[in-house]
């Protein structure tokens, strides 16, 4: 639209590049997920089109651009995102109470179509390569000589010693020719029998790595997009059910003040990252009678002042030490443990925790007027 002589100046390209990087980070953590994903996709398409203006066209980049646009139109931010966390915190805050939830139980009618669409594109790509070989050369393509030619040609062109060496061994190349044609022609079976993905995806990764090492053809985008075939939610559910409670019937219990809005939001945050369901979360006022009998050393006033963690063996942690122990049960929080065990942290940490806990009204409004911190 700006004329064939117009080219974007370097400054504009740098601005677009850094905007794309920034929204890509926002999309990764799930903040304003769909707008961030769409801007990220458009930024990548613009830069890729600019690169195409000075070189050859290749399909690995095209598949990645298509996938990014599809992802931007999906409900990707509905779970495991900052957007979802903010929605949950807001809902619980408006209700004035915390309720246990499971982020992996969230479902959507539109959650699967982007995955299926990308899977079908993969199947069509491989079937297209299979059909091109068969329709052009028939079964003569599998005689090994065709692949030998390409290995030696690309090896010389791109400086691949492995490709040149492999191209001199006809028997090995003959076997690879048949493996290649069978892989491409039957990949569509993954869509009919999803469990075959556990065979075809590792085979596909090895297939493309081998192409890169011998012919310097980079299909790294394909390898990355293979993740659409992996049932991540099912894997996490299995791990959670198998190892979530550490093999014990009883789990550590987190006791908090259910009338404190800041405490409610804190519990939503902890529960959101408790992916393996390793902790229980209890409003101490609802359990006070039984808690007072089982743990007479815990006072009602202490529970109001700071969070408590009670382990199945009866050991109790309070405040900062409770939070530090909670981090051990959440893999995403493990990096914090490095800082929480620095020298003098056991002295400084409780003071910071107490400072925040004693000033909760300044950090959080109490719309109900019944917060224990105001009593």
Which key terms come to mind for this protein?
mainly alpha, 19 helices, 375 residues, four-stranded mixed beta sheet, 61% helix
Blueprint (SSEs and pairs):
Blueprint: H1 10-29, H2 33-52, H3 59-72, H4 82-95, H5 113-137, H6 145-158, H7 161-166, H8 170-186, H9 189-192, H10 197-215, H11 220-225, H12 232-243, E1 253-256, H13 261-272, E2 280-283, H14 288-294, H15 300-305, E3 308-310, E4 316-318, H16 319-327, H17 334-340, H18 345-358, H19 360-363
Parallel strand pairs: 1-2
Antiparallel strand pairs: 1-3, 3-4
Helix pairs in contact: 1-2, 2-3, 3-5, 4-13, 5-8
Structure in words:
There is one protein chain. The chain has 375 residues and is mostly helical. Helices cover 61% and strands 4% of the residues. The protein contains 19 helices and 4 strands. It has a 4-stranded mixed β-sheet. It is elongated, with a radius of gyration of 28 Å. It starts with 9 loop residues before the first helix and ends in a 12-residue tail after the last helix. The model has no long low-confidence stretch (mean pLDDT 87).
